Amino acid sequence: LDESAFTDQRLFGEADLLWRLTSSELQKQQLCDQLAYAAGMSSPLEQRIGVSLKQQRLKLARNTARFLPRIGLQASFDFQNELSETGGFEEEPSSWSIGTRFELPLFLGGSRFKERQGLRAGLGELEYLRDDTHLQVAADIRVGLRRLLNLATNFPPAVRSAELAETYLELLFDQYAGGRQTLLEMLDALQNDREAGLKAVNTQLDYFEAAAELLHEIGWRASENNRTPDQELLTRLSEIRQSGN
Fold first, then answer.
1. What is the largest CA-CA distance in the chain?
2. Cα separation of 184 and 60, whole Å?
3. Rounded to whole angstroms, how far apart are CA atoms 25 and 30?
4. Are residues 162 and 183 in contact, defined by beta-carbon separation less than 8 angstroms?
5. In terms of DSSP bridges, do strands 81-83 and 89-91 run parallel, antiparallel, or are they unpaired?
6. What is the mean pLDDT of residues 62-81?
7. Which terminus, N or C, of the chain has the lesser number of Cβ atoms within 10 Å?
8. Residue 1 pLDDT
9. How sure is the predictor about 206, in pLDDT bands with cuts at 50, 70 and 90?
10. CA dist 193 to 8, 165, 187, 214, Å?
11. Residue 7 — pLDDT band, cuts 50, 70, 90?
12. Which among 174, 169, 171, 175 is positioned nearest to 189, based on CA atoms?
C-alpha cells in the first residue's frame, strides 16, 4: 500500500511537470520539434539518408564542374647573358611573358548530360525521402506525446475516484454491519470500488507503456540507473527544457 501511494505521488509529480512543459500550444509544438530533432540525430535511417545526400551532392558537383569553362593563367620571367667574341661582356635585357588560357567544352550532351540528369533525379528522391521520413517521425512523436499527456491528465482523477470508491465502500460496510444498509447496496458499492481501482491501474499501465513507446520512438535508451521509462523520459525532457536546446 505504501509503495502504491509512493508511485501515485510520483506520477502526480510527473503529470504536473508534463503540464508545465506543454502548458501552451506553442510550448507543445516547440517540444515536439525538439524531440523530432533528437529522433533524427539518433535515427540510423535518417543518418544513412543524410550520408547518401552528401555523396549525391558531391557526385552532382563533380559532374557539373565538367560543363563549366576553365580559365588558366601563365606567367614566365627570363634572364639571359653571354660573352661577346671580342672579350667584352654584353647583357641581354630581361623578358616577361604572361598569358591566359580559356577552355570551353564544345559538346555538352551525351553521357555526361544524362549522368547529370540522373544525379539530379536521385538527389530529388533522396531529399523527398529525407523530408518524408522526418515528417513521419515528427507525426509519430506528436501522437505519442499527446497520448502521454492525455494519460497523465487522466491518471490523477482516476486515482482519486478509486480512493473515494474505497472510502465509500468502507463506510457502507460499517453501515451494513450495523444493519443500516442492504446487501444489494453493499454489492453495488463493492462493484464500483473494483471498477474504479481497475481503471486507475489500467491508466497507470497505459501511461508507462506510452512513456516507453515515446522513449523508443525518439531513440533514447532506458537508463542504467534503475529508472523506469517514464522517469527516464521526464529526466530527458527536463534537461531539454533547462538547456533550451
1. 150
2. 81
3. 9
4. no
5. antiparallel
6. 62
7. N
8. 41
9. very high
10. 17, 5, 10, 32
11. low
12. 169
